[in-house]
Design brief:
Order of helices and strands: HHHEHEEEEEEEEHHHHEHEEEEEEEEH
CATH class of the largest domain: Alpha Beta
Distance between the termini: 62 Å
Strand order of the largest sheet: 1-7-8-9-2-3-15-14-13
Mean pLDDT: 93
CATH architecture of the largest domain: 3-Layer(aba) Sandwich
CATH topology of the largest domain: Heme iron utilization protein-like fold
Number of helices: 10
Radius of gyration: 22 Å
Amino acid sequence: MKADPISSVTRPGAAEIRQARAQNPKMRERDLARILDISEAELVASMVGHGARRIAPDFDVLFPGLKDVGTVMALTRNESAVHEKIGPFEKFVNGKRAALMLGAQIDTRMFPSVWVHGFAVEKEDGKDVRRSLQFFDAHGDAVQKIHARPETDRAAWDRLVEALLLDDQTPDVLPVISDAEPFSRKLPSEGSETELRDRWQAMTDPHQFHGMLKDLELDRVSAYELAGDAWAWPLDRSSATTLLRLATSEDIPIMCFVGNRGCIQIHSGEIKTVMEKGPWINVMDPTFHLHLRTDQICHVWAVRKPADVGHVTSVEAFDSDGQQIIQFFGVRGEGNPERSDWRGMVEKLPKLEPSVQLGAAE
C-alpha cells in the first residue's frame, strides 16, 4: 500500500514520515519525498534514532577518513542523471570555495559551502545492512552519497562515522529547509554577441569559460546560441544515446560529467556495457554506472573551446529550463591535442539546423 500524497499546507512530522517509509519500504527516498512534498533531507532526518545519525560535512575529516575505508560507491546526481563510481577515495585537495578529489576511479569537484546537512545511515536489507553517508544542501537536495560495499573496511568506516558525529542526535527534529530559486535562463543583452565571440576566441583554457559567462551574465544555452556554428552547433536530442553507443562500439575513451549545486562527479575511460530501459539509457560497467533520463533531454549542443593545444570538443545535454544535465569530453592529457577519433565521432552526430542563423566565429 502506497502512502497518499500529503498536502504542502500540512507538512508531515517525523513520525508520519517514518510511517510512510514503512508503508513503502522499497520506494526510493527521492521518490517518496516527492510524494510527501518534503525534501529528501527531511525524509532521512526523520530516521535519526531509527537507523540514521547526524554527521558534520567536515571536509578535513570526511575525505582523509574515506581514504582509509577502501572501496566504496560514490553517487552524484541531478534531476535527470545519476553518476556512480566504484573505487577508493585517493588524493584530496581542499579549498575554501572548491575542493578536489583526484583518483583513478573517484574524481570529483566539490563546493563546501553547499554541503549543509549530513547523515550516516544504516538500513536493513533482508539479512544485510546497507551503510551510507549522505550529504544535502540547504534546500534538502542530495549533493553526494557514499555507499559502503562488501569490500569496504568496516572498522575504518565506523571510526570515520564516530569522528563526524554531531553532539545533537535528538530524534523527531527535522532540519530547516529553504526554498531553492528555480533555474532561469540569463538572456543576452544588446551587444553581448560580439563581446562573447571575441572573448571566446581569446580563451586559452576551457576553464575560463565559466568566468566569461559570469562576466557577460549569460547561461550556457544562450551563449551557444550566440557563438556561431564554428564554436557551437545544436544536435538531435538522441545524440547522448548515440554518443554512448558509438563510444562503446569504437572503444573511444570519454569523460562524463554529472553535477548538482554541490558536487560534480567525473568518469574518465572507456565504457563497455550500454543498455536502454524505458526512458533511461544506462552504462553498467564494473566501476562506472550511469543512468540518464533521455525523455528529459530538451537541448543537446556540440561545443568547441580553445585549449592549451588547439581546442577541445564537448557534447552537452540540457533540460527544458536550459539547465545542464550531463557533459561529455574526449579523454585528453594536459598538453596533448584532442583525440581525433573523439572529435570525428562528435562531428558525425546528427545536427539540427539552428532556428536563427547567427553566423560563424572567425
